Protein 1
Amino acid sequence: MNIEKQRCSWAQTDPLLRLYHDEEWGIPERDSRALWEALMLDGFQAGLSWITVLRKRDAFRKAFKNFDARTVASFGKPEIDKMLENPDIIRSRAKIEATIAGAKIYVAMEDSGEDFSTFVWSIVGGSPIHHQGPIPASTPLSEKMSKALKTRGFKFVGPIIVYAWMQAVGMVNDHEPTCFRRGHNRKSAK
């Protein structure tokens, strides 16, 4: 007898969303580069659905050199023009330029001895928050995170985008109560 796992309702409709949900979404991420990549990709989602970004993620990784911040920070007009012609990614000049600017901020933090992971995780108290109740679009904590990121100069980091990112990288456990992933992060949640 094969019993299908219960998942969050948003992950039921597409095989790629199911895989992303089961293997990535909501799992606490501590790697600075991976956190920065996820934040940049969530910025590309602004005004679009996550599945659109997810389907283009490999192309984004190729275009942005696997989100190596030092490499991306050196991008200029030739790289921007090439990306604006690339149908495999979201061709938004503002979002591409925001990612390059974000790389420069990330590198500056790193060069000054500041770890991006430590910076963002310190804002949530260092461990995942186990959220109860209806899932909001943003919270006072995502507003605080958004403000901290904007103060650094990051773009496309409003409270709603930031909350989606916080969910994705496991800072907040927003798996639905019946989801098999809900309890997996409970040990590290507060």
Note: The domain at 29-188 is CATH 1.10.340.30 (Endonuclease III; domain 1).
Protein 2
Amino acid sequence: MTRILVIDDHATTREPLSFMLEQEDDFTVVGQAGSIEEARAAILEPESHIDVAVVDLGLPDGSGEELIPELRRVNPDASALVLTYFTEEEMLAKAVAAGATGILHKSASVQEVVDAVRRLAAGEALLTVDDVVRALRHVDLERQKEREIRLSFEKLTEREQDILQALADGLSDREIAERYFISPATVRTHVTNVLSKLNAASRLQALVVAVRFGIVTID
């Protein structure tokens, strides 16, 4: 009997899918979860050995990819089938890198999901070696880009960091000049240096990246 955990934040998807999976003689749904928190509780439940987890990536308290390593840690032989509307290469690559063994779009039919679960439970691979290698390379490239961005922030002087935060505070060049007792021309020079060091095309782009990496805060 294949024991299945269904993780999806939409009950209108999760409950019908669980019902349909239960109709298969060799399937049993041992749990349902609508969030990371609920899924973790289900995974850690002592009596709920899981063979296949059907995982949605877009959960209200995080990405479903976070659960895959935890699932495999508790159930080393378990497989994770990602069922998602997302098509972004980065997100899907991260899911594969985290250990997903299959990916289906949510437009897939119930029979396609049933077949995928059955194949995974039988030990078949739905992803090729090339799929996995490509995903790992993509994730590694993204991590490298993030390291380079973080290093670029380290190049900023203390005053340039102040100017960047002032921009995040919504201050104009004149207001920034008044705050730091410098001329508007000097402010513009600092901004130019910030954009150059961050390889940003505009103030907005610099702020978006700075907020993403927690370099500045927006109230």
Note: The longest strand covers residues 27-33.
Protein 3
Amino acid sequence: MNIIIFFIILLVLVIVHEFGHFFSAKKFGIRVDEFGFGFPPKLFGVKKGETEYTFNLLPIGGFVKIFGENPDEESINGPDKDRSFVNKPKWQQAIVLFAGVFANFLLAWVLFSVSFMSGVPTSVGNNYESSFVKDAHLVLVSIMADSPAERAGLKPGDKIVSIEIVDKTVKPALLTIPEINPETMKSFVTSHDGLEMEFVYLRGKSAEVNTARVIPARNPESETYSIGVAMDQIGIVKLPILKAFWEGLKLDWSMTKGTAVGLFTLIKDGLKGQGDLSSVTGPVGMVGIVGDASQFGFTYLLSFAALISINLAIINLIPFPALDGGRLLFLLIEKIKGSRLNPKFANGANLIGFSILIIFMLFITYHDIVKLF
């Protein structure tokens, strides 16, 4: 089921990207020969006007064949040359190339906005009006390895309902926390000198009630007690339509900046020989992440799809041959030098770039598979 969900998400994201190219090309009068759903081999096609809409066997995205995008003699000097991509003004070519990326940013905005309208889990500290926040709980965000919390069976995502001291000889005023939040929990744990505590928590979509007994450990450096968790007060934020679209736009911009900085850092470290691929995930790893997101509900899945859409947009903007960013770079070079690049060079560079990308994707997929074992 996770694989099916992943392929559906990937198909939608890539089709939206390609539709951006398709729509803008049509608007500028550029001939579009084919709009493919999935990748060949071809199953069947339907021709409407000059464009054939094909349905293909491999459901891993889609493609658009734009006349003249990979220039040859026919597209440059043939009878339909006026409708060729390569013969259009540079600004029109740039818009067509950028339109796919823009479509992905736009889709991410819509998905984030729908998440906010449906109700999305978020930190209470994000300054949303209290009337928009429902069902706030103290949630464990991460668990340190070999910590008291991990040994007791607590996991990220657990919602803490109550905490009390197991030893009833402690005076009653200190047995429980009247109002649980990150500050009161931290104070409660650190002020009881390693006394055993019973945590009541909810886990998963079914909100199953569980208990765990934890003995806080003393940190020799700070001389305080802790159970080894990071936590946050998280509630369900459900916004009206206009506010949802505004918050969705802000989140889209914030995630875009964060993703761009992260990708730039990864590439920079890679060029220095200090790259770490442990944080890079390919198709196999994404299937597992999709499964985790789907378990937490529909809004998690929407937000995750939005993040993938942003990543797809930013990766396509990298100035590398075969990517939209590489083609935009070639356009810039042509604009500066005042003449067209040799078509054989441009097509050859894009072919080599595409081959390198396929090899890299296969390597990442192998890396994903190794991490499973």
Note: Residues 241-271 form the longest helix (31 residues).
